[in-house]
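A quick aside before the break. I want you to see a complete sequence-to-structure record at least once, exactly as it would be stored in a machine-readable document. Don't worry about memorizing anything.
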Amino acid sequence: MRTYHSGKKPALQISLPPTEVSSEHSVSAPFPAPIVWGEAAPEVEVVIGPTASGKSAYAIALAQRENGEVVSADSRQVYKGFTFTTAKVLPEEMQGVLHHMMDVADIEEVYTAGRYAKEAQEVVRDILARGKRPVITGGTMFYVEALLWEGYLPAEVPPNLPLRHKLEQRTTEELLDLLARRDPERAAAIGPNRPRLVRALEILERLGAIPRREHLTPRWRARFHYLIWPREELERRIRARVEARLDAMLEEIRNEQHRLTPERARRLGFDWTLTLAHLQGGLSREELIEALTRADLRYAKRQERWWKRFIPSTARKERCALTPPPSCSH
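That is the input. The structure line, written in tokens, reads:
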């Protein structure tokens, strides 16, 4: 486990939502008014939302208010290095708040949701044992749910390397079609997420069917904070972030490209594949910025679709006890 310690800076000047769940949440820039629901006396706080919505800064301010520590739920930030490629919060931005579950694996490792859920549970329990509030935040929806609900992940299925190699030869669209033929519901839920498509097909090969998540048990009482922006503003934020981190991202991937096989880059995601295409002369700088922005926007839409099924219809008005998604409605 890697824990980040940082020097203290003045607290962010942010008005966070009150502890009661209500229809009005006064949050000054750079945050929109969040949708908040869940327990009035939570054990953990969960900050979610699309990419570039300000989750990290919001989580830091929330952790300061609630005497908490941040637990990252990001499938790329678990890898060591690649700070700007994965948009990690920088030590000087942490405002003295401890951060966990970043830089815990080597880039050449295949880090699974099962491993994340196991290690992150230990982190959360340790934070609670010290009398503090875990603030879970990240854009990897699968990681968030795997951490929060007992029984969310299927029985442990070991990696099938020959099958993975065979599947890696197919396009993402072909993988999605293969899964849709055998499990249309799961294919619709996953979408064009290449690592998860490969994993789902791997489980199907081993078990014959992917176990249903019908009997889930929450591990902790939780309160959720969902950050959502108007589409035009989110696009502006995404483009600005791409441009701001581009030079540092190019340097990170250029320095490590000898460790990134084409197959590994595809599994890591579009930041790696598009940047490598630019470094190898396939894309101009302007084309890279546009491609990264478009890819981030598509990812943000998938995140929003995922969380919409998770947000109770009464979230703005009344409390909603933590129940397995998407059945929470009170």
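Two observations worth writing down. The two ends are 36 Å apart (CA to CA). The chain has three domains: 3-152+214-230+301-308, 161-207, 232-300. We'll return to this after the break.
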